[in-house]
Sequence to fold (410 residues):
Amino acid sequence: MPRHALRAGTVIVGDGSTLDDCTIGIEDGWIVEVTPGGPDGDYEEVLDLTDRVVMPGLIDAHVHLMYTGEPEDLDLTGLSDEYLTLRCAEMARRALAVGVTTVADVAAKGNTTFALRNAIRDGVTLGPRVYACGSMLAVTGGRATDGKQSGSIIEVDGPVEARKRTRELLLYHHADLIKLAATGALSSPHTGARDPQLTVEEMRAATEEAHKVGRPVHAHCYGEQGITNALDAGVDVIVHGQSLTDEHIERMLETGTALAPTLTVYRAAEHTEADDPIEQFRDERNRPSSSAGVLEETEPNFRRALDAGVTMVMGTDSGMPYTRYGDNTHDPVYMVDWGMSESEAIRAATLDAAASLNVADELGSIEEGKRADLLVLNENPLDGIETLLDPDALERIVLNGRFVEDLLWT
Fold:
């Protein structure tokens, strides 16, 4: 695409600051200048957006592209990897359509999301930037369904095996992050959500291998002991995080460990036609007693972490029951509803989300030297975060410096 520039009325940088009347210069998909007023450089085209708001593309740091969000869709039996890869592409495209220019897939079957990541990167298909972990590491049986190993799980027992399988993901598949199951899950019918699973030693072995090559580690955690184990292992992001104690929060502040609270999945009843879908889903799966109270704990848990200053990261858990692609932009809205400012929520969905993936040097803010993934809006979400839900407010999406509508036909 020709060297071009956007003359923006307001720029939401992504780091909590804003700029008025400035030029964003773009070349080969990268931002080459952010200058007050008119451009410093020479451009073949300067687009007048002086009555528009430009912000970074949103980053959803926790999705499951293999799933559609339909409650009956957790069973992938009979679906080939080839079919799932194509379906992943469609789910990713739905996220892109609402302004999510980057997603992190955090548990997938086989090579499905690795293949999609590579196809998008190489221009074979259109979609948001994908960061993929491949399969999640869990204990034997930790995510089994009907007595069978889940297709999106690698079962490990002991630190030697955890280290080996992490190396395989990193070195054979170039995994962008590693995902660990520190506890059970609400979606796994026979395990208690708060019950610890992977040990500190197992998670530490995986974390050491990931950190050797600069890859972050995200840990699925409910329950006090699971969170403690994950922090002891040195993970970078606590996902979900219900049951945070004051000690946990203090440790997270000391180490810079982020929290991905995945609010959208817990507030699914508010963006779906079902009366109370998560409660219904939980009841139908006959949850163990240790799973009780997770939903009720979500809001006070989030508010305590927020008040203490824990870094928050946008992650919707899209693909889980009733959490559909295209609803991704509800997450920052829920963050504001529970106490964040608009500016803080946008940072959680841009720069801090990028940092959780170790890519803040390239993504998450509008700065010289970063990739040109941008949104053009006719309303300012800093004046009301619900603007992100309005499809009429989102006028254009810029991905790698090019308008998405142009990419559809090239």
About this structure: The two ends are 11 Å apart (CA to CA). The longest helix spans residues 81-97. The domain at 4-56+365-407 is CATH 2.30.40.10 (Urease, subunit C; domain 1).
